[in-house]
Design a protein that fits this description.
The complex is a heterodimer of chains A (283) and B (392). By secondary structure, chain A is α+β, with helices and mostly antiparallel strands. Helix content of chain A is 29%, strand content 17%. The chains are: A alpha+beta (283), B mainly alpha (392). Strand 12 of chain A pairs antiparallel with strand 1 of chain B.
Chain lengths: 283, 392
């Protein structure tokens, strides 16, 4: 059964315990951070910070809401990174985790081309820019914990408010809608239900998602509900036909026009090397 | 007896050699310390100058190889034979440069051989990688035929001869595929690449523009070579090529307009944003203006006219690739990127190497067509063989 996590933004108090437990479970080095005007220190996901909790100050008329959003890999149902990788270094496991094989399964085929980073619609995969032979890094859904004893991801165990809930994705999705339907404060949308073909991590919130840094629209249109792998496959699937068809057309043309041209050229005597000895005017 | 290998060192070539030397040092430094200290790349801008310019533009500019091969060797338009070998040569060097810049750009360069054995065939990059690798091999073999005219190894020549026709066909099919897949690479950037450039038709736009770029590039190269070697430019060849380019440009423009309207984003071209202005420049200055220049006989029959229009086409394709890689992505990325000094130096060195290798090869191998065969024979006194690169 494919697992997921339901994130209820209304329950998050911004304690960032999840960030700490992620770091300690995954042995990630500490980074010095600086406070900003909205008390938002962690910034973006990077190679040493696989999850961050950012704060958002949202003004709705008179009311000011302070909302905290945990971001990490969304673990797409059809991951763009997996389809983009030409050595198949990412894989979506049956448990639902999207993992990076070089570090997770010790299958080091990755060449570090970073096309996964271009492909990811959520900007998740990060690069170890400071290393001579860098790996791509991102949240692995604590695949090791999940596999060994069916343990919850480290971040979920650390959450003191129940803002994070681990379980089967189908059940979580049903629960998300149940929470939304039973309480009018929620926005009537589960982020991750359909975005880019759906993700294992699901979000519900009482403020519009776009105000929390989620992309719901792009250039005036809703973001794609088609997965990125399905879009590229729509083009890529024609490759063998083009290869054979175009090759056949060219071969036919070659013989057809050759018969018409009839004149055989003596190519060997047509060209010569440029003689620089005699011609000294060259640049 | 073989003619000696020659390579005259001029001040201009000294500068180029120095740039190549610097680039080699930069490359070694980058391989040792990694990408972080040497480039301005980041998680926001994972691809920069080396991929955006050297690879994407290098491969596109090398499009002269496959379009000329199609025109000359498949359609047998023999009047274009004089430019065939030069086009093949620049194409081959362009591909080698693209492969080198790729090697410099990949983080785990020690794993560069792995993709041959571990296949992610659902990736566009897989197709690009295989087609580029195979096509470079094909080009080396095609060039081998020319190489063997200079360095006579008869058994090899015999083996290669019957393979040349299938190689030529493969040498058109493979680049057609990967020129388009270089565009398909950007399908994943849906919702991020500005809609004036993002399209499911982007593979068509890439392969089509690489193809019509070919004749324009050949014109520019031919003119430069004739300047450098004080030869007569192949003006009649360039002129009749303009027809190919012009019609392809017109088709490109029409498909572009249909595509924008079909996706309902045509209005974005006029919304006054930075992206829209860049797009308008791309379409007007580098597509519509060349079409008009090619259409007017009094312009296209003049050398300056055909060269200017061709230059616009070449710059236009580079401009288009830069728009896809940088302009169109900048808005959704939110941060800016400018290449570091090391990135510039490596790029500069690689393009200098291209010029040097080109010069070396045309001076030592039969690439350019013979000029005034009879005149030369009379004036040099040593007879016809003096001009030939090989004496038996």
């Amino acid at each position: 059964m494919s697992k997921g996590v339901l994130v209820d933004v209304t329950r998050c108090i911004g304690c960032r315990s999840c960030m700490v437990s992620c770091k300690s479970w995954n042995d990630l080095p500490a980074n010095k951070s600086e406070f900003t005007n909205n008390w938002d220190s962690p910034g973006k996901i990077n190679a040493n910070n696989w999850t961050v909790v950012n704060s958002n100050i949202i003004e709705q008329g008179e009311e000011v809401k302070w909302r905290f959003v945990k971001k990490q890999c969304m673990h797409c149902l059809e991951p763009a990174c997996e389809s983009a990788c030409f050595t198949h270094s990412f894989v979506k496991t049956k448990e639902g985790a999207v993992i990076y094989k070089p570090t997770e399964l010790n299958q080091d085929y990755c060449v570090g081309c970073r096309y996964c980073m271009i492909a990811c619609p959520f900007g998740v995969p990060s690069f170890q820019w400071d290393k001579p032979l860098p790996f791509v890094q991102k949240c692995r859904f604590c695949y090791d914990r999940m596999k060994e004893g069916g343990l919850e991801p480290a971040c979920v165990t650390a959450c003191p408010t129940g803002a994070l809930k681990f379980g089967d994705r189908d059940k979580l999705l049903a629960e998300a809608w149940q929470r939304i339907d039973s309480n009018p404060k929620y926005i009537k949308h589960v982020y991750g239900d359909k975005e880019y073909g759906g993700t294992s991590w699901l979000y519900i919130s009482d403020v519009p998602f776009e105000q929390l840094g989620f992309r719901t629209e792009a250039f005036g249109k809703p973001v794609s509900n088609k997965s990125i792998p399905s879009l590229t496959w729509d083009v890529l699937k024609w490759t063998p036909y083009i290869f054979v068809g175009w090759g056949a057309i060219l071969t036919a043309l070659h013989f057809y026009t050759k018969r018409r041209a009839e004149v055989e050229h003596d190519e060997e005597n047509m060209y010569e090397a440029v003689n620089t000895q005699e011609n000294d005017k060259e640049e | 007896m073989q003619k000696k290998w020659t390579f005259k060192i001029t001040p201009f070539r000294k500068v180029l050699l120095a740039l190549v030397g610097i680039a080699i040092l930069v490359a070694l430094y980058r391989l040792v310390v990694g990408l972080g200290p040497t480039t301005n790349l980041s998680d926001d801008w994972p691809w920069g100058l080396w991929i955006g310019f050297d690879l994407l533009c290098g491969i596109a500019l090398a499009g002269g190889g496959f379009s000329t091969a199609l025109i000359v060797h498949v359609l047998h338009k023999d009047k274009y034979l004089p430019i065939a070998r030069a086009a093949l040569l620049t194409s081959l060097i362009g591909y080698v440069i693209a492969l080198v810049s790729l090697l410099m750009d990949i983080g785990r360069w020690n794993n560069c051989w792995r993709p041959f054995f571990y296949w992610g065939f659902h990736s566009v990059l897989f197709e690009v990688f295989w087609c580029i690798s195979l096509y470079t091999t094909v080009q080396v073999l095609e060039f081998g035929d020319i190489f063997l005219e200079r360095v006579k190894i008869l058994p090899l020549k015999k083996i290669l001869k019957p393979a040349l026709i299938p190689l030529t066909i493969l040498g058109i099919v493979l680049p057609s595929l990967h020129q388009s897949s270089l565009g398909s690479l950007y399908i994943v950037t849906i919702d991020r690449l500005y809609p004036l450039w993002w399209s499911m038709l982007i593979p068509f736009f890439f392969v089509w523009s690489a193809f019509f770029l070919g004749p324009a590039m050949v014109t520019i190269e031919g003119t430069l070579a004739s300047r450098a070697y004080n030869r007569k430019p192949e003006l009649p060849v360039f002129q009749s090529l303009t027809k190919v380019t012009m019609w392809m440009l017109i088709v490109y423009l029409i498909v572009k307009i249909i595509d924008l309207n079909y996706r309902g984003v045509a209005g974005m071209a006029f919304n006054g944003s930075f992206e829209s202005n860049m797009f308008l420049i791309e379409m007007i200055a580098f597509v519509i203006v060349p079409i008009i220049m090619y259409a007017i006989p009094s312009i296209r029959t003049q050398l300056w006219g055909v060269v200017t229009a061709s230059a616009l086409v070449v710059i236009g394709v580079i401009f288009n690739r830069m728009n896809v890689v940088f302009t169109g992505m900048a808005g959704s990325v939110g941060t800016s990127y400018f290449p570091s000094i090391w990135e510039w130096l490596l790029t500069l060195g690689m393009w200098s190497a291209l010029v040097l290798v080109y010069l070396f090869v045309v001076e030592n191998f039969p690439i350019l067509v013979k000029e005034h065969e009879e005149d030369e024979a009379l004036s040099t006194g040593t007879g016809m063989t003096a001009g030939k690169s090989v004496e038996a």
